[in-house]
Amino acid sequence: MSGEGGKKVVKQYIEDLRKKIHYHNYRYYVLNEPEISDAEYDRLFKELEELESEYPELITPDSPTQRVGAKPLEEFGTYEHSIPLLSLNSVSAQSDVRDFDERVGRFLGIEEVEVEYVVEPKIDGLAMELVYENGVLSVGSTRGDGKTGEEITQNLRTIKTIPLRIFSDADADAPPLPLLEVRGEVFMPVSKFKELNAELGGKGEKMFANPRNAAAGSVRQLDPKVTASRPLDFFAYGVGRAEGKEFSTQWEVLDYLRRIGFKISPVIRRFKEFEDVIKYHEEVKERRDELDYEIDGIVVKVNSIEQQDRLGTISRSPRWAIAYKFPAREEFTRVKDIVVQVGRTGALTPVAVLEPVPIAGVTVSRATLHNEDELRRKDVRIGDTVVVERAGDVIPEVVSVIKSKRTGAEKEFRMPDRCPVCGAEVMKEGPIVRCIGVSCEAQLKERIKHFASLRAMDIEGLGEKVIEQLVDRKMVSDATDLFFLTKRDLLKLERMGDKLAQNILDALEKSKHTTFSRLIHALGIRHVGEHTASLLADNFGDLESLRNASYEEWVSIPEIGPEVAKSILLFFEQGSTKELLDKLERAGVSYEKKEAGVAEEEVRKVLEGKTFVFTGRISMPREEAKSIVERFGGRVALSVSKRTDYVVAGEEAGSKLEKAKKLGAKIIDEEEFREMAKGFK
Predict the structure, then answer these.
(1) Active centre residues (catalytic)
(2) 145 φ, ψ to 5°?
(3) pTM higher than 0.85
């Protein structure tokens, strides 16, 4: 397009495209109810990027493409709030919150029942103010001291639940206000916080103590790209100035914010009876651990704006609102000792043994120190006075050390170089120290579950409940003991009948005849999954060759790196591994042996570059069939097309088979596919 007329058309098209993307952002990030697929959204966004690249003069600050892109700052500026962001008086006793209600009624000169309250969660995040001019975000700032905050607009723009442009008020058929100040809380969801800490810990970087610290550390980055990489969220809960708009209640404020595109906490309620406020506090306290964000109480607000104005403020707090907090989750106590627990995956976790202390209604005597790196970073020593936090059902953790209380008698702790449960060697992977013993009692249930699983030895009927009983009753000491169980042994288990016991024995007998790759996978070698097991089987052919190979031979195989090779080496060096392999041989476990590399090359020649479609019922698990095709360079499609090379048809094959016949695709049965795959699994 050329000329002014053409440019106007492009400008309008770009504006319409932005509105579409803003709308779909709202559906996805705020309502969690997307209307289009990710692929369709990506197409719209890419189209906008291309148009703005072609017409850079049409780029506007509220464009979805401009969320991230500002240069790092040297320091934050300040921003003065037009209406102070007041802090709230906090209480934790029921008698104190009842006093608040009585004061409100007394001050207003009306009966208690005539005051309506809005109850909101007290989010454990950071209070923010967003200023919108004609519907476009212009300034974002922290609460600061209530009068002056830090101006962090470029960072707040990166948070997906903060709209860059607010919607028109559809209910009132009105355009955005000339000026609107929105107050709310930036926080980090608990699930995302855990993921972030796991990622940081895996890199050996400093982890955050809690979601609030993570949110604070993320939102105050001088480089907005760092903030953009962090999973921050935002709930709106109020307004400052609102030119051209008047509200009669707090409930109306929240409804308006929701209508113009803001995310509002679903925990908000409205009550006419103050007793219901008390009951709701108890209800939310019980439910708090179900929420994906930290809250430390509820905020109780007089609903009527007119009554709020009459009540006014005292010093820096409003008379019309109060924070009704939950019991504290942090307390001080002393570290009596540090011990090591071995988890079901072999991870060694240092745990502080504490002088018992009540936290949130529970007496706490132990707290996790996560891993050796965290223990060193926090510098926790035996004898230290520490801050302990308890959040929900998660094991309490040591947050920090009060170093000013040290006497010099404190002792440093060192992680053991042997597993405290089985005595096997340990291996450090990033921040995690892990036991590699194959018969470690702490890991036994998980190891047996893996050994018996579909993709490993495929022992049908050996479910989780049976495995737990076998281990708890000490009837097995490692996975190979399964093959020496008798019917008499099995009948001792709860809910075990003669038929089920016989079925398990039959399944155990059947599983003794397997493939080499399945057997390797079943051994549970660290970092050796199904694909790596297949590589090892193809390159070594039998167990004797594999266990006698050198580190250099393992690492020379494409796709097997130093970490995997080291893990294999440590596995075969353990005395318990030799015992396990000897027992497998005595049990009569056998596997198909192949000349390394030859069969693989034959299969690759047949499958590489070919497209397969599976239809109907086949005995081989679909995921297994798919992994074979993809491993040897083929592709599995869900539907038949002109590009389909083979259709593997099982029993009751339906429309896909008919379509394959019409298009002339080659139709084979499961046996023919197995022959093509040469028995690989």
Answers:
(1) 122
(2) -90, 10
(3) no
